[in-house]
Design goal:
Helix 6 packs across helix 9 and helix 10 runs antiparallel to helix 11. About 35% of the residues are buried. Helix content is about 60%, strand content about 5%. It is mostly helical. Strand 1 and strand 2 form a beta hairpin.
Length: about 260
């Protein structure tokens, strides 16, 4: 963390050596880094919750009476929280094969995913996505967004005051949620979380294998690539993920 802060301040120090002191850059860079690193969970959840409201407003959210929404409610029955964070589920009318979970517990599933997958496969994907929340990956994405997006610089951090986000800040956080780029290690950890999540629900992790296989086939088809969102674009090689789940099932005697 210290290296990260130093890397932001160093350019300003170099300017000082050249005789051109840029104190505004120095202060802005150092403070922004500290803000990103000291945000509380409550602040992050508050900011993300505000951005999700904006995301919902610009998306076609299906009502609870819709068949897709009823199906998702049935799939997620009893799934009320993760790591103490209350979960809320909604369906977006969108042909993309996608789903995402946010640090505030908001989970959004696209109709394209529901059309492609069985109930157990959908639950496996949801298990993976909420794994990112439970494992604090979504929190780190928010910190990264603050460090790389000018619109988010200056969000209050060390105080207990919750900032009311501007439209540009709402958009920046929403984009960070939709286009999260997790590391290979984080994706593997989320896969493991989904595996354990399914086992805890007395379900076979084989649904992860079938879900991954469907995504692999869909991604390989030039006719359907335009409806495949970034759900697994940053994930480890799909074939390796399938083998990893199968090997673990075999080692544990799970069918």
């Amino acid at each position: 963390m210290k290296k990260l802060i130093i890397s932001l301040i160093l350019p300003a120090l170099l300017c000082t050596a050249c005789g051109t002191i840029n104190t505004n850059y120095l202060l802005q860079g150092g403070v922004t880094a500290l803000q990103a690193l000291t945000l509380t969970d409550a602040q992050i959840q508050s900011y993300v919750a505000q951005s999700v409201v904006a995301l919902d407003a610009r998306s076609q959210v299906l009502p609870s009476t819709n068949a897709y929404s009823k199906r998702l409610a049935k799939i997620t029955a009893g799934l009320t929280s993760v790591d103490g964070i209350p979960l809320n589920f909604k369906v977006y009318q969108n042909p993309e094969v996608n789903a995402f979970a946010c640090a505030d517990g908001s989970v959004r599933v696209y109709t394209g995913l529901l059309d492609l997958m069985t109930d157990s496969e959908v639950l496996g994907v949801i298990g993976h996505e909420i794994g990112h929340v439970a494992l604090k990956h979504t929190r780190k994405e928010m910190q990264n967004a603050m460090l790389t997006n000018a619109a988010l610089a200056g969000l209050a951090s060390t105080s207990n005051t919750m900032a009311v986000l501007t439209q540009s800040q709402l958009g920046a956080i929403g984009e960070a949620a939709l286009n999260a780029q997790y590391s290979k290690k984080q994706e593997t950890q989320a896969d493991d979380y989904a595996y354990d999540f399914l086992r805890g629900a007395q379900m076979s992790p084989s649904c992860l294998v079938s879900a991954f296989t469907k995504l692999q086939k869909l991604d390989a088809s030039s006719a359907t690539q335009n409806v495949v969102a970034k759900l697994f674009s940053s994930h480890p090689d799909t074939a390796s993920r399938i083998s990893r789940v199968r090997n673990r099932m075999a080692a544990e005697g799970v069918k």
